[in-house]
Every structure is written in C-alpha cells, then in structure tokens.
Amino acid sequence: MPTIKLFEELPVWKDARKFANKIYNLTKKFPKEERYGLTSQITRAAVSIGSNIAEGFDRYSKKDFIRFLIIARGSISEIQNNLYIALDLKYINQDDFQEAYALAKELGKQINGFIKYLRSYDKNNSKANKLNEESNYYQF
Predict the structure, then answer these.
(1) Is the C-alpha dihedral spanning 50, 51, 57, 63 positive or negative?
(2) Residue 96, Cβ density class (10 Å: 0-12 exposed, 13-18 middle, ≥19 buried)
(3) What is the CA radius of gyration of the chain?
(4) What pLDDT was estimated at residue 52?
(5) Residues with Cβ < 8 Å from 24, sequence gap 6 or more?
(6) Hey, is 3 helix, strand or coil?
(7) Residue 65 and residue 83: Cα distance in Å, rounded?
(8) Which of 61, 58, 104, 47 is nearest to 81 (CA)?
(9) Distance between CA atoms of 78 and 50, rounded to whole angstroms?
C-alpha cells in the first residue's frame, strides 16, 4: 500500500490541475463581456475540483475526504453543463467542446473510482485509510 503524505502526490489532484489549466485556456476564447459571467463560472468550477481534493485530503477523516471528492465531482458536472452553453452560444467549436467534455468525463470517472476504492477498502480493512495524525499521511 502506498503512503501519501501530500495531496500533491495524488494522481487525481494532478489531473484536476491539468484540467483546470485546460479550462482556463479554453475560456480565453470567450467574449470579453462574458468575463464576469460564464467565463468566471466555469473557471471557478474548474479550480474548485482540485481545491476540494486538496481540502478533503487534509480534513483528517476519510468520510470528510469522500464528501469533498463528491463535491469535486459536482463541479465537473457544472463544467459539463457550462460547456454545452458555451457551445450553444458559439463561444467554442464542436472539437473544443468534445475534447473538454471528454477530459471532464474522464476526470469524473477517476474521482468516482477513487471514491469507490475508499469506500470498498473500508469493508475489507478495519484500519483502512486512517490519517496518521502523528505524521500527517494517509496509508492507501
């Protein structure tokens, strides 16, 4: 079982960071008048994914960690919805939409898999994924 001491070591957080950068680059194509509307909404949701993964990791309980992963998953759905709006308004083309939507879907699957893993591991191991408070790391 690997030992994870920092949220930055989580592959899901690394992918969330890459996804947020992709969304920021994509929204550069949006009209300037959307800066405080759709652009702000979609970029805040993208940042929220990694932020919730990081915050949940440092909450000292696996139950809280899972809750924050679920919130991160909700932010992905919000982005997917907003991608449709951006496509409908012709702020992005079909190729950009499909690429970003597929990345969002993949990240959602990764988070769902991680949640499933954390939940199922509990059933098989009574000491599962407890934060070692003395040294501040998770044992996965």
Answers:
(1) negative
(2) middle
(3) 17
(4) 98
(5) 43, 46
(6) strand
(7) 27
(8) 104
(9) 14
- Chain segment 45-73, per-residue pLDDT in tens: 999 999 999 999 998 788 999 999 999 99
pLDDT tens, 65-106?
999 999 999 999 999 999 999 999 999 999 999 999 999 999
* Residue 60 pLDDT: 78
Is residue 120 helix, strand or coil? helix
Identify the CA nearest to 3 among candidates 132, 121, 99.
132
The phi, psi pair for 118, rounded to 5°, reads -60, -40
Mean pLDDT (the chain) is 89
Cβ(80)–Cβ(49) under 8 Å?
no
Q: Where are the alpha helices (DSSP H) in the chain?
A: 11-27, 38-57, 62-88, 94-124
Find, among 27, 67, 66, 68, the residue nearest to 46 by Cα. 27
| Ramachandran region, residue 87 (left: φ > 0; alpha: ψ -120 to 50; beta: rest) | alpha
Q: What is the tens place of the pLDDT at every residue in 106-126?
A: 999 999 999 998 888 666 555
